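Q: I have three molecules that I believe assemble together. Could you output structure tokens for the complex as a whole instead of separate predictions?
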Amino acid sequence: MTTPLLEGRDLKVSYPVRGFRRKPIEIVHGVNFSVAPGETLGIVGESGSGKTTIGRAILGLALVTGGTVNFDGRDISHLGGAARRALAKDIQVVFQDPYSSLNPSLTIGETLAEPLIVQGWDKQAATKRVLELLDRVGLPKNAAARLPREFSGGQRQRVAIARALAPEPRLIVCDEPVSALDLSTQAKVMELLLDIQREMGVAYIFVSHDLAVVRHISHRVGVVYKGEIVEQGPVREVTTHPENPYTQRLLLAAPIADPLLQEKRRADRARLRQTQHNQDVQAGAA
Amino acid sequence: MTSTPSDSTVVQPSETDGEEVRKGALARLVRDPQAVITGSILILMIIAGLLANVIAQHDPNEANLYVVNAPPGTEGYPLGADQAGRDILARLLHSINTAVVSALIGASVALTIGTAFGLVGGYFERLRGVTEWTFTLIMTFPGILLLILLMPLTGGDYRATMLVFGVLLSPGIYRIVRNMTVGVSRELYVDAAKVSGVTSSRILRRHVLSVVRGPIVIATAFLCGTAISTQAGLAFLGVGSLSIPSFGAMISEGFRNIGLAPTQYLWPALTLGVMNACIVLFGNALRDTLQGAQPKAQKIAVAKLVDGFEADAESEDTPALLSIRDLGIAYPSPSGALNEVVRGVSLDLKPGETVGLVGESGSGKTQTAFGVLGVLPNEAIVTRGSVRIDGTEILGAPESTLRKLRGDAIAYVPQEPMSNLDPVYTVGSQLVEGIRVATGLSKREAKSRALELLERVGIPDPRRTFDSYPHEISGGMAQRVLIAGAVATEPKILIADEPTTALDVTVQADILDLLRDLQQEMGMGIILVTHNFGVVADICSRICVMKEGEVVETGEAIDVFANPQHEYTTMLLNAILDEDTVRTDPPVSVGKPTEGASR
Amino acid sequence: MLIYSARRLASGFVLFILVAFITYWLLSFSFDSVIAVRLGASATPETIAAVRADYGLDRPVVVQYVDWLTGVFQGDLGRSFYTQEPVADAIPPRLFVTLSIVVPALIIATIIAVFLGTFAASRGGGADKAAQGIMLFGYLVPNLLIAILLTVVLAINLGWLPATGYVRFGDDPSGWLKSITIPVIALFIGGAANIANQVRGTMIDELRKDYVRTLRTRGVSARTIVYKHALRNAAGPALTVFGLTFINMFGGALIIEQVFALPGFGTFSFNSALQGDFPVLMGLTVFGVGMTVSVNLLTDLANGWLNPKARIYS
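A: Yes, here they are, computed for all three components at once.
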């Protein structure tokens, strides 16, 4: 296996609490993970599990209180100011909410040019690059002069992807990028993300609550539960033969879009619950 | 293009405040008669003040004993003279200047301090504690009292006084700017900018200031008004130099002389009144153009019907529990024309069955559900059709009929559990209220019924939950509470609007199990609104697929999944990510291999 | 709830100490000029310095302030430079006069505002338009003008009420009532408009919320939803305005007093400020700030009681 592009070691992330001398609340309790160049690591978990926080810690948007995040072998978990900003050309982000992630008062062109301009591109080169990017994500050239509100959720998410691609990063953190989209739009945006990866070799950290989505896009998967990665491995193994009890529950809880198969899954889930319940009782008795 | 057209219907007018919008705003302001009239009056007043020495023939402080209390129309004294024999017109015009200078000083000091600290306090969380404290401190000063108390310091000079007053006004601006800045800095686009390597100062300039600008402009108009009337009040008291003409001083003198020469009081009072009114009205017009019209009142009432509406008279007696026929619901567009979002939906529900109302966002599925419940928003208008619950037509029925049905025959489970509980009352008291309204049980009986229900919906410690406030319980628990409230009266029909969308998958499965059990127990018919085909497959016996306000396909769930008839249904089913597809292609690495490599 | 109250109390206390200090510090710049005015022709730098030393005003400001503050906690606010009357005795009767117009005005304003705001928010249509018109009028006209207009019409032209002067409640209750009627009316109009507008806005926001719809589907009546649920939720934001309105009204009262020649807080402040009567000015600061701090405290506590979340998070 190649050397990892990004590696988290015993990473602890906390949420600062307002007020004098109050201790931050730890949300992620020491997780280990790694992503190779061109690979997708899926991070799946439920709300409040800490999956989004892991993504934000990688991006330098959350308070790391322990462990390291190594990018290219260098610890980036406590970078500040200019050193952090310099990383912008390597690590980028696509957020969940396509409405809040674009400034409503800037045109699409201005939004896309901003990361380039702060890195010292001149205006003409930036404009040219913006048009390339729009083309790459399947939006018309005249989109550059328009405001976000003229676009649908799916189109805005394409803009967000274009913004992330602008500096040709090596890693993009995707935080639930398709959760807010309708079913038909979701599939197309996923297809775009896959194409881009195959073509450019960018690595993804793909955070989602939806197992089906993660299964579709990830090479490897980590399952987060209460701030810990409880199971991690190649996508096929984790999603077909999970070992961790929580992963098993998660897998059987997701309904299949087929009445007959779902009826069977429901029965499986009821059986699993009974088994796990019995185990808990035994463990309690022991 | 890539997404469904219905996607683009989402408009968020409150967020619009950019360069382009502002150009539009100015154009709109010029078209608003209220803004044009008040604005012109203000400009005329300011011009008159600037030309004071040209218009009036006397110095405002020049006393002439021959014209003491001269009536209006006296030669050289068009508005008369006061008790010291000074030209009232000259004094009035110079008073305008005093007022304008007061407004300028007061407003600019308040703006500068308020905006600067608001941005800093709003954006840098670590500094917020300090700024918050400081401005609470300033706000607690009783302003006018302090200005009076500080007279020994300011010497009564109105400019120095207004300087201090500007500081006292700054908390208002600070609060606006700080709130908006906090709001903006939580927006994901600010996070995205940070990740893109944008510096804090650039983020403040480019992303924050553009949003804050509008509200500041509006607040400034009102600040000017406050500064002018405060200055007038202080001058009325006698704070300030006697040689500076001002509205307050003139009113005070005129008031003392009111028996002899009532018009002396009238002129300054009228001018001050008109000036103040113009500023407030102009500020209101400004707010309407920059922020859109003020929110409309919310009347709790049955949905409006289109003119000449008549429920479709249906001769045949349908055995259905709920029968919807050709239902149409519309919203007025800005131009006034009606825009139908539900276009002729028909649907039947039998006891004990679950019908899935499926569609993407904007398909009209939730509007249909609200229409059946009779809780459409104020703006909605029912255009056609018929909705019968147990044989009773509800379109056009009075609220009292609907209220009886709601307590008894039909109930509702919402999408977002937290926002559907009243935050200031305990969970228990909200349940008890619903039960008592519907059944007329005593408080004690209602309480024991509520506890039974909480237990029934699988809440581990019903007593504790009963006494909890909504924010003290989890989303899954809150949804169970809402289900308990809905089934409290054993309704015949349950309308569940995306009841599991806001919940985690594992909780979703539990809630679906609960709904299934309750249905078997009570024999309810359920309409389940959802976009999730997994949920449909799990619980629905029949499916109604909606697209752009119309039902495109109805059928038994098994049949529709196996053999969809409409192409839209087929497209949706194909878009579902397959259970069996797992990513198999290995990672490719063709990106920037090393630093400094040429591209 | 207890901790919440204690925290609020402590923060109010610190606020009071700070505000008093800033006032003291600002006033200390004017000591020389005030003394010079008092001494009149005999004022020379030497005599001024002597008087300063006499009063202990030549020490560092912080020392003076701590000294003064110690006195305050012992109930001693010093004596007036001019009348030698103890400040602690001189202020309360004047404060009472001012409060006797502010408090009724605030109560009337609140009752009218809650009714008007709720009415406007939950009725809509013509009722809403009319209510908004009334509110706008309250905003438009400065209360100084209202006061004078009312005096001219009700007192001078019609002679129904006395134009000026104050009758002590103990002397003649009905006379007292008559003497405060016009000032109270002049004062409450602006305040009512302000609170009503706030109530209307927050009520509309509340009535749009999801829980209102859910309550409707349970068969709860519109009246219960508006008054029991939405109004109580809207009370929090309205309370903040209530506190600010009190401070505004108090400031307005200082001016209104002058119109009606009421011997209140404002008249006293104004005269003392003209004379540079330093101990009295500081005493007035103590009462003025103490009062606003306690009103803020009360609104905070009321908010904590109304809103269960505030008890935990603030």
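A: One point stands out. Chain A is about 40% helix and 25% strand.
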